């Protein structure tokens, strides 16, 4: 994230998706939604079926840096990638996938997923968590989980920038001066704080999807609105035998 700070709180459900063959291995964020499934953005993957490319990829949950050591609560390889059947890579519509873990994350609490399409209201304070770069053009992913606070923008404001075809009720846009998501934040949560003012007990509103650059004046960050997909998520989790793509 750009303009954020290190989150001094362990968030065990927060996922870092890594390609162990790359030098800077983290490439997308994600959210644990059950012991076996992590929610992320569809554009994190080139193809939507697991192939040899992804055998060297891992999901780390609750990754944090303590001095020079990278610690995490759980690590798993990827077993299956189930993406929304209507994902459109040219418009990024329905930018959402579920990744099945080979090793279930037993005993890790999953966050609340907002299912109310009327939430959040315009100009509400919301937060991003992410391991993405801190400046546009940087290649250095953050080993520390970072947080940045922003505000939701109106549909009109966001579609005026990106177009009415591009921005629909399936998105949530945010804006704040010099604060935004950036490379490596895709699939990470847009969220509200929990009633106890912690992030670990917060409510997930969206998944980081795209935007023009990072924190460029006048350009909101665009997110997949999670409430639209609550039913699809539930269906994949319940009926894992069905191949939805
Ligand atoms: C990315 O590459 C990315 N500021 C995500 C969000 C934004 C830019 C880049 C929007 O993951």
Number of DSSP helices?
Answer: 2
Question: Would you tell me the structural class of the helices and strands?
Answer: mainly beta
Roughly how many Å apart are the termini? 31 Å
- Tell me the major beta sheet: 6 strands, antiparallel, barrel
Number of strands: 16
Outline the low-pLDDT stretches: none
Question: What would you note in describing this structure?
Answer:
The structure is a single chain. The chain is mainly beta. It has helices at 155-162, 230-238, and strands spanning 5-6, 14-19, 26-34, 37-40, 57-61, 64-66, 69-71, 74-83, 97-101, 112-113, 125-130, 146-152, 171-175, 189-192, 203-210, 221-225. It is globular and about 45 Å long. The chain starts with a strand and ends in a 7-residue tail after the last helix. The protein binds 4-(aminomethyl)benzoic acid. 4-(aminomethyl)benzoic acid binds at residues 180-186, 208, 210-211, 214, 221. It is found in: Secreted.
Walk me through the topology.
Layout: E1 5-6, E2 14-19, E3 26-34, E4 37-40, E5 57-61, E6 64-66, E7 69-71, E8 74-83, E9 97-101, E10 112-113, E11 125-130, E12 146-152, H1 155-162, E13 171-175, E14 189-192, E15 203-210, E16 221-225, H2 230-238
Parallel strand pairs: 10-15
Antiparallel strand pairs: 1-12, 2-3, 2-5, 3-4, 4-9, 5-8, 6-7, 8-9, 11-12, 11-14, 12-13, 13-16, 14-15, 15-16
The structure holds 4-(aminomethyl)benzoic acid (4AZ).
In short:
This protein is mainly beta and 245 residues long.
Tag the structure with descriptive keywords:
245 residues; binds 4-(aminomethyl)benzoic acid; six-stranded antiparallel beta barrel; 2 helices; mainly beta; single chain
């Amino acid at each position: 994230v750009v303009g954020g700070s290190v989150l001094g709180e362990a968030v065990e459900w927060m996922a870092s998706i890594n390609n162990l063959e790359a030098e800077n291995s983290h490439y997308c964020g994600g959210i644990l939604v059950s012991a076996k499934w992590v929610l992320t953005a569809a554009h994190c993957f080139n193809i939507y079926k697991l192939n040899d490319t992804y055998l060297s990829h891992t999901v780390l949950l609750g990754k944090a840096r303590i001095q020079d050591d990278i610690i995490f609560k759980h690590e798993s390889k990827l077993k299956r990638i189930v993406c929304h059947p209507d994902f459109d890579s040219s418009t990024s519509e329905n930018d959402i996938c579920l990744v099945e873990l080979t090793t279930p994350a037993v005993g890790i609490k999953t966050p609340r997923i907002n299912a109310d399409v009327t939430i959040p209201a315009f100009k509400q304070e919301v937060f991003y968590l992410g391991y993405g770069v801190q400046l546009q053009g940087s290649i250095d992913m953050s080993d520390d989980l970072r947080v940045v606070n922003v505000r939701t923008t109106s549909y009109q404001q966001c579609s005026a920038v990106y177009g009415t075809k591009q921005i629909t009720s399936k998105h949530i846009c945010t804006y704040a001066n010099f604060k935004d998501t950036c490379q490596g934040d895709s699939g990470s949560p847009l969220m509200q704080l929990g009633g106890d003012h912690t992030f670990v007990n917060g409510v997930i509103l969206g998944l980081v999807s795209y935007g023009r650059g990072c924190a460029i004046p006048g350009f909101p960050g665009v997110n997949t609105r999670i409430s639209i997909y609550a039913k699809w998520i539930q269906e994949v989790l319940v009926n894992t035998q069905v191949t939805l793509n």
